[in-house]
Each structure stands twice: as structure tokens, then as C-alpha cells.
Amino acid sequence: MATPTPNDRMLKALAAAYVEKPRATLKQLADAAGTSTATLHRLCGTREALVKMLESQGLSALNQVIADAELTKAEPLEALRRMIVGHLAQRELLLFMMFQYRPDSNDPGNECSRWASYTDALDTFFLRGQHEGLFRIDISAQMLTELFSAMLYGVVDAERCGRAASATSAIVFEKFFLHGGSAQKV
């Protein structure tokens, strides 16, 4: 019998289940994701293999978001909008990736340095946006990347906790990222 191929919906459900109950058994994770324990065992075999599979899928999804946003070609505001919508479409995997993030993830030589191409693409995009006048220049492109990432995690986690409505997240995120939380221009 062939190993089942996971679909996007199942992987997102597994990622969400893992974040909600990180100590859950494979059976509990399978139940939460709406699949059978046998399917999950055939798919990954162990929790460690599941985590690696979800990390790989998450990184692949984030890199696809970057590619789809056309950060190097599209007008910066349009690319930012595409990037926000694309990330939010991957909210379950994004939350899982942030849940798995470790401070040494970008250290050269570390197996987690696989984030480097993602953060480099964001850094380059924000620098281009600064040169084209969309983003402020008194904050480094690297800091804009970190703020963007942290805000994404915050929005997705707020949705997960019922503190934010996913229907308006993209609009709120864009407004806050571009204009801050001030009621008036400062």
C-alpha cells in the first residue's frame, strides 16, 4: 500500500491541532485534524517526523507566499498586500512555524537557518520599498522584516484566541503596518 499524500487542508488541520495541544498523541492529533490514526501513522510514523513534515510544509508555503507576491517586480504597495493576504491564507502553518521558532533559527550553520532565504527576501523587499518611498527610512529594512513577522504572528494568534476577526485581519494589518496606531499623524 502506498504512503498517503497529505493534502493542504489536512496539513493545516494538523498544524493547528499541534499548536493547540503540543503534547497530544498522534491519535489525538489525527482526531483533531479529522483523519484516521492509521493514515497519520502511514503519513509520518512519529511525532518527530510529523513536526519535520509540518516545518517543511510551512517553510515551503511561506516561500510560495513570497514568490506569489512578486516582491522584486510588483509595485511595493501591491506586493505588500499580496504578501499579507498570502500569509494569512497560510495562518495555520504560519502559527505552527512561529510556535516552533527558536532564537537561534537564523544562525549560520544551524539546521534552522533555512529561514534565511525567507528573511532575506523580506529584507530586500522592505529596502526596495524604502527606496521607492513606501516605507520609512528611519527604521532599518531588517527591523521592518522583524516587525512584519511579529505582527503577523500576533494577528494570527489573536484570531486563534478569538480576540480578532479573521475577516478584517488583512485590512487592519495593512493599515497598522503602514500607519501605526496613532489616531492622528504625528
TrEMBL record:
InterPro entries: Homeodomain-like_sf, HTH-type_TetR-like_transc_reg, Tet_transcr_reg_TetR-rel_C_sf. GO terms for molecular function: DNA-binding transcription factor activity; transcription cis-regulatory region binding. Keywords: DNA-binding, Transcription, Transcription regulation. SUPFAM superfamilies: Homeodomain-like, Tetracyclin repressor-like, C-terminal domain. It comes from the Bacteria. This is Transcriptional regulator. It comes from Billgrantia pellis. The lineage of its organism: Bacteria, Pseudomonadati, Pseudomonadota, Gammaproteobacteria, Oceanospirillales.
